[in-house]
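Slides due. Your pick:
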Amino acid sequence: MIFMPRRRARVTTLAALPVAALTLAACTSGSGPGSAASSSSGSSAATETGARVANVTITAAKGCTADATTLAAGGVTFKVTNKDATAVSEIELLSGERIIGEKENLPAGFSGEFAVTVTAGAYTLYCPGAATERSPIKVTGLSTSTNGDSTVAAALAAATKNYATYVNTQVAALLVAAKKLDATLHGSSLTAAQAAYMESRPFYEKIEPVAESFVNGKDNLDADIDVRIGDTTFAQWRGFHRIEYGLFKMRSLAGLAGFGDKLVADVGRLVQKTSGLRYQPTELANGAQELLDEVASSKITGEEEAYSGIDLLDFANNDEGAEQAFAQLQPALAKIDATLATTIQTRFTALDKLVDSYRTGANPSGFKLYNELTQADKVALAAAVKAVAEPLSQVGSKVANA
């Protein structure tokens, strides 16, 4: 199972963003296994069986073109350059309709990379909006370790097992919280429903990349649970943020019971889909990176919780989810690259401390509301996220062939 997300289309007013957030969006990795804020290599890998690097060029005329279309099983790095395709801003690697790796924030003129661990089979490079959107990738052979360190392999195996337990715990708690929220929507207390909404958000924010990976054509589980009005029509709007709109914008329970029922059903689907799933180490690394990208793209900007203003609650739980994924990998990463492991942990600690400074008992969410933040606050938060995201973007490639 792969839990890389299909990100929701979002419209951001750049003038409203702090400078550091703009830098983060443009220069750090986007979502996708091991995506890194680095330029694509100018050299080309041979198009042959056994290649472990594919240089991908995105152009307006041809779409996504990889110079290596047959790759060896195991750790594979995709180095991507968008030369001039203004309609394209991301690239995904699909297994069937499941996203197993992607790189976002790739407007024309930008480069980046992502790493995945893949087994033999047929895959698809997908560039939404390109002249040719899909092209085949074939993976052959058996996965092999590049360093032969059995202690690293054991640590990585433990990491994926422990992370699966963490995800299952959070998803189970999300279902309990969704049912509680639904019950309040069938009741008469607006205050109780608002509190239940706030209580339910953390569980989803910690594991959002898992839900975002379940996309099959028009069936998008993340959209069912967490879509915002900018990404759909009002008539089709559902999930958490439709409920948020009713509770905090309209300040009414009218008509919300049906949305609560559907949310419970959709979270139940998430429970079923995540039960028994197995993860790759690159998925943990990329999921951690994706959660920080979520912070940069919507929490720092105040777009996520537009009506409730509890963006910092979501921010804190994206941060926690990212740190939990990293923590599972840390013992193995310490053997692979001790300096990188220490750097990331130190920067996570600094980010945690900064987020904690915004805690308050004055709001039921436990944090200051977004409208209480100054521009200096937003810049400081963006800089702290960027400080973690930059070294964290290297972890996927580090563990891909460990």
Remarks:
- DSSP finds twelve helices and eleven strands in the chain.
- Residues 1-50 have pLDDT under 50 and may be disordered.
- The first strand starts at residue 53 and ends at 59.
